[in-house]
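2024-03-11 09:14:02 INFO worker-7 job=invfold-0412 stage=load source=structure_tokens
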């Protein structure tokens, strides 16, 4: 039984009907004919450009070239995914404006897992970096809609606990959620045992639901 940290946060803050849909989609990532369910990774170009940017030693030309490439793509094929392309251009420009001065050395991305009995929560960061000798796990958010504070707290907590289990040597304050659109940075809290209990309770319910839920 495996879900993502984003799905867990959504689950914990959703209605019962939405919760069931989230669990079903996690259990059955393919359609009945065996084909993968279509998924749109809306900001894939932005994440790739940011990684390339920091790997290049913060060469701003990398991000500017990504913007040019996306702008050209939209002009040449205005009928194809123009809204998603515009969102990526906006996100890259926001990163340039607010976070491009971060001196990150990109490290090989780990894939920490938060375990609860038979459920695994994937807590892979968007970036695993070193900054001024400190290693950090970073989750990137480019959405125009402000994330829910509780969702951010859940994701940071799970990412930290997973990193601690994997012995990555990352402190709570070094688990970072970058809300790029609002130029806000959130970090994890060390304790908050009550939140961990809530997370485990939610995972216990997911485990029970998983067994009985059917593909539709």
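2024-03-11 09:14:09 INFO worker-7 stage=emit residues=216
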């Amino acid at each position: 039984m495996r879900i993502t940290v984003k799905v867990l946060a959504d689950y914990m803050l959703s209605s019962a009907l939405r919760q069931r849909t989230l669990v079903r989609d996690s259990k059955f990532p393919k359609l009945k004919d065996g084909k993968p369910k279509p998924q749109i990774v809306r900001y894939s170009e932005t994440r790739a450009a940011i990684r390339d940017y920091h790997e290049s030693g913060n060469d701003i030309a990398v991000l500017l070239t990504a913007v040019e490439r996306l702008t050209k793509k939209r002009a040449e094929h205005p009928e194809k995914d123009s809204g998603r392309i515009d969102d990526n251009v906006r996100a890259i420009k926001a990163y340039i404006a607010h976070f491009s001065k971060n001196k990150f050395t990109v490290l090989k991305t780990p894939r920490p897992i938060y375990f609860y009995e038979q459920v695994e929560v994937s807590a892979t960061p968007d970036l695993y970096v070193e900054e001024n000798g400190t290693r950090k796990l970073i989750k990137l958010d480019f959405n125009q809609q402000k994330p829910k504070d509780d969702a951010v707290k859940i994701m940071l907590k799970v990412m930290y606990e997973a990193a601690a289990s994997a012995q990555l040597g990352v402190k709570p304050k070094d688990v970072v959620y970058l809300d790029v659109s609002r130029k806000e940075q959130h970090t994890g809290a060390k304790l908050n045992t009550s939140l961990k209990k809530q997370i485990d309770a939610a995972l216990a319910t997911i485990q029970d639901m998983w067994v009985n839920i059917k593909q539709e």
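2024-03-11 09:14:09 INFO worker-7 stage=report msg="The first strand starts at residue 2 and ends at 4."
2024-03-11 09:14:10 INFO worker-7 job finished
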